[in-house]
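Re: [ENG-882] Designed sequences occasionally contain unexpected residues at chain ends

Forwarding the minimal case from QA. C-alpha cells:
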C-alpha cells in the first residue's frame, strides 16, 4: 500500500482514468474506481462514511487523503419561464453562472468553463469582463453535480436529473482543454451521468488546434460560433478569426466529423443575429454558400442586449426572413428562444461576479467606469 499524497485529492474532478490511477496508487483494485464514481456522480454522495460497499479501512484511508469538494451555490434565481440560474462560487471567491433550461421533456444545463473570457467577442458580456482564470475539472463537473443534486428528488439517483449539457456558459472551453475533456468524459461515462455524446455539446469560437486535439481525446458534439459569413465581418465580431480564419475553422470542423465513426453526426453552427450588422439577406445567402460542404444544422440566436454595447436584436420579421432564406437553401434551422430574460440568464448575458475589483481586467474597468462601487465591496458584474 502506498502513502497518501501530501494534499487531499479532490475526487470530484477526476476523470474515469484519473480515478483508476488514483485507486491503483492507493494499492486498490481498479473496480474501486467505478464504485467511487458511482457514489459521487450517480448518487451524489459526498461523505466517504456513506459509501457502504467500501471497506471501513478504505473509507478511513479516503477520509485521510481525499475529499469531494464542489463549488458553492451562492444564489438561485428562477425565471418566470421555468429556467433557473445558479450563481456558483469557485475557489478564490469569483463566481460563474450555470443555467438550467427545461424544454418539454428535456432538461438542458448550460455550464461555464472559465471565469471570464480572453477572446473578447464584440457582442458578448463575458468577453467584456476580461479573462480571470480557467475552471478546474472539479469546478466544471461540479456545476453538473450541484444542479443534478438540486433537481433530483430525495432518494433518487442524481444521474438522471439532466438530459443535455451544453458548454455555452462563460468562457471558451477549448482554451481550457484538459479540464473540459475530463469533465466531458465524466458526463458521458456510464459509471457517472451516462449522457449520450450527442447530448453533450462543446461550443467554440473556433480554436483550430484544440478542435483537432478534442477529436483525439473525446467525442462530444461540437458547436461552432460562426456569426459571420466573411472573414472581414467575422474579424470584427470574433477577434480570434484573425488568428484562425473561416477556411481553417471550417476545415477543422470537417476533420472533427471525419474522425467520428458515426457518419450521421453534424456540427451545430451558432449564429448570433445582430440588427444591421450580420442579419441581411445577403449575409444569409453567403452563409448558405459558405456552409455548403459542412454537415450541419444552424441555430440562430437573436442578440441578447446588455448595457455595455450598442448592438440591437433584429425584429422578429428580420429573424424570420433570415431563417427563411437558409431554409430555402435546404438547411435545418432553429431559432433559439430567449430564456431566462428576466434573470439575465440568456446567451451572452452571463457575466458572473468578480470577487475583488483589483482582479478585473483593465478593459472591463474602462468599460464599467462610472459605475459606483465601494473599493471594499465585492463588485457584481451584471450584464443587464
Ligand atoms: N466561448 C464559447 C462558448 C460560450 S458562448 C463560444 O463562443 O462558442 C456561447 C454562445 O453564446 C456563443 O455562440 C456566443 O456567440 C453566444 N453569445 C455570446 N454573447 C451573446 C449575446 N449577447 N447574444 C446572443 N448570443 C450570444
Ligand atoms: Fe468568449 Fe464565447 Fe463570449 Fe466570445 S462568445 S467572448 S469566445 S465566451
Amino acid at each position: 500500500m502506498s502513502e497518501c499524497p501530501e494534499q487531499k485529492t479532490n475526487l470530484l474532478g477526476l476523470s474515469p482514468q484519473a480515478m483508476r490511477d488514483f485507486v491503483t496508487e492507493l494499492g486498490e483494485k481498479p473496480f474501486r474506481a467505478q464504485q467511487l464514481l458511482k457514489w459521487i456522480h450517480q448518487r451524489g454522495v459526498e461523505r466517504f462514511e456513506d459509501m457502504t460497499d467500501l471497506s471501513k479501512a478504505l473509507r478511513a484511508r479516503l477520509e485521510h487523503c481525499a475529499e469531494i469538494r464542489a463549488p458553492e451555490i451562492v444564489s438561485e434565481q428562477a425565471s418566470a419561464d421555468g429556467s433557473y440560474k445558479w450563481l456558483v462560487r469557485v475557489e478564490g471567491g469569483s463566481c460563474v453562472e450555470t443555467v438550467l433550461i427545461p424544454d418539454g421533456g428535456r432538461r438542458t444545463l448550460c455550464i461555464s468553463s472559465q471565469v471570464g473570457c480572453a477572446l473578447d467577442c464584440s457582442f458578448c458580456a463575458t468577453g467584456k469582463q476580461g479573462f480571470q482564470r480557467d475552471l478546474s475539472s472539479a469546478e466544471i463537473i461540479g456545476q453538473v453535480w450541484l444542479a443534478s443534486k438540486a433537481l433530483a428528488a430525495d432518494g433518487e439517483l442524481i444521474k438522471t436529473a439532466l438530459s443535455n449539457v451544453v458548454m455555452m456558459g462563460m468562457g471558451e472551453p477549448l482554451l481550457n482543454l484538459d479540464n473540459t475533456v475530463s469533465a466531458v468524459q465524466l458526463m458521458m461515462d456510464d459509471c457517472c451521468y451516462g449522457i449520450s455524446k450527442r447530448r453533450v455539446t462543446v461550443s467554440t469560437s473556433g480554436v483550430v488546434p484544440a478542435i483537432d486535439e478534442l477529436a483525439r481525446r473525446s467525442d462530444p458534439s461540437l458547436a461552432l460560433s460562426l456569426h459571420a459569413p466573411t472573414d472581414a465581418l467575422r474579424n470584427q465580431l470574433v477577434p480570434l478569426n484573425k488568428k484562425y480564419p473561416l477556411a481553417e475553422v471550417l476545415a477543422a470542423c470537417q476533420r472533427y466529423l471525419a474522425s467520428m465513426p458515426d457518419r450521421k453526426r453534424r456540427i451545430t453552427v451558432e449564429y448570433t443575429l445582430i440588427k444591421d450588422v450580420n442579419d441581411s439577406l445577403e449575409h444569409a445567402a453567403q452563409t448558405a454558400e459558405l456552409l455548403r460542404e459542412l454537415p450541419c444544422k444552424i441555430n440562430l440566436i437573436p442578440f441578447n442586449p446588455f448595457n455595455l454595447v450598442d448592438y440591437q436584436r433584429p425584429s422578429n420579421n428580420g429573424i424570420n426572413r433570415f431563417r427563411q432564406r437558409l431554409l430555402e437553401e435546404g438547411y435545418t434551422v432553429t431559432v433559439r428562444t430567449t430564456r431566462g430574460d428576466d434573470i439575465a440568464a440568456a446567451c451572452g448575458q452571463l457575466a458572473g461576479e468578480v470577487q475583488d475589483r483589483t482582479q478585473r481586467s483593465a478593459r472591463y474597468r474602462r468599460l464599467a467606469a462610472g459605475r459606483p462601487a465601494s473599493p471594499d465591496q465585492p463588485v457584481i458584474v451584471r450584464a443587464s
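QA comment: On inspection the terminal residues look reasonable. The radius of gyration is 21 Å. Proposing we downgrade this to a documentation issue.
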